[in-house]
Amino acid sequence: MNEITIAVAGAFGRMGQEVVRMVKEEPSFRLVALIDPKGKEGGEAPVYTGVVDALIEKRPDVLIDFTTPSSVFENARAALEMGVRPVVGTTGLKPDEINTLARLAGEGKVGAVIAPNFALGAVLMMRFAQMAAKYMPNVEILEFHHDQKLDAPSGTALKTAEMIQEVREERKQGNPQEEERLQGARGGYIDGFRIHSIRLPGYVAHQEVIFGKEGEILTIRHDSLSRTSFMEGVKIAVKKVIQLEELVYGLDRLLD
After folding, report:
1. 58, 145, 235, 240: which is the annotated catalytic residue?
2. Does residue 29 contact residue 236 with C-beta atoms inside 8 Å?
3. In this structure, what are the phi and psi dihedrals at residue 232, rounded to the nearest 5 degrees?
4. φ and ψ at residue 170, rounded to 5 degrees
5. Catalytic: 149?
6. Number of other CB atoms surrounding residue 205 within 10 Å
7. Residue 190 half-sphere exposure, CB side, CA atoms within 13 Å?
8. Residue 198 has pLDDT above 80, yes or no
9. Is 187 exposed, middle or buried (0-12, 13-18, 19+ CB in 10 A)?
10. Where in the chain is the domain with CATH 3.40.50.720?
């Protein structure tokens, strides 16, 4: 495999620092730009305050984005318009924004990967949940993240819900006369089931998908205990995106 040149947006955040470390350790990758709006000095590669300047000057093969929901769309759009392949781990993209990016990728035949979660265990958790939903359609999702996370519910929870929707017809759960005496107590509503978001210091990224059936409960849970858990998936996405000519949503679609 030829060397893949990479720019990292959000390079000095907690996820960004893990990505930079992974890129430096992978022999087939070369780090060419660090992007941070505060312009910190990193020493590992030239630092830029904006994505566009970095892409114009360095023309990397891939832009890895772990920034914020408010900037990720413009970053990914700029990359696609310049022929740079984005690998996006930032959550919070709206469906219409993903559709726009998919259109740009298809028109330009430029690969792109958007993954709500890069942990391989999380991908398996979502697949197992989809399998279970065929047989146990009464379900709720609980997701737990650190208290600095900006979006709720998490992208992983939404992706899990989408996969469940593919095999489960909409049905209202619980008592039809249920009264929510405190707004939000029952969580966010989607296709008849609920998503609950917990934000507390000490968590990294965790999710439970709980299925209920008369006489039994099935719980499928995944825990990311360290941000290093996401790096194998990011590495896979970078290597795969070079071969793509379209946008792929979800790491599961890149795995055998």
Report:
1. 145
2. no
3. -65, -40
4. -60, 135
5. yes
6. 22
7. 20
8. yes
9. middle
10. 4-114+228-254
For residue 49, which amino acid is it?
T
Q: What is the pLDDT of residues 50-106, one digit of tens each?
A: 999 999 999 999 999 999 999 999 999 999 999 999 999 998 899 999 999 999 999
Distance CA 231, CA 44 (A): 18
> Can you name the CATH fold of 120-225?
Dihydrodipicolinate Reductase; domain 2 (3.30.360)
Give the mean pLDDT of 107-111: 97
pTM for the full model? 0.82
Contact present, 49 and 39 (Cβ < 8 Å):
yes
DSSP E strands in the chain: the ranges are 4-9, 29-35, 47-48, 62-65, 85-88, 112-114, 139-145, 188-190, 193-199, 205-213, 216-224, 247-249
Kindly tell me if the per-residue pLDDT of 20 is higher than 60.
yes
Of 130, 190, 204, 186, nearest to 160 (Cα)?
Answer: 130
Q: Does residue 91 contact residue 116 with C-beta atoms inside 8 Å?
A: yes
Average pLDDT over residues 155-163: 94
- φ, ψ of residue 116 to 5 degrees: the values are -60, -25
| Band of pLDDT at residue 1, cut at 50, 70 and 90 | low
Q: State the pLDDT at residue 218.
A: 98
Beta bridge partners of 210: 140, 219
- For CATH 3.30.360.10, the residue range(s) in the chain are 120-225
Catalytic residue among 94, 109, 149, 196: 149
Could you tell me which CATH class the domain 4-114+228-254 is placed in?
alpha beta
Q: Is pLDDT larger for residue 179 or for residue 128?
A: 128
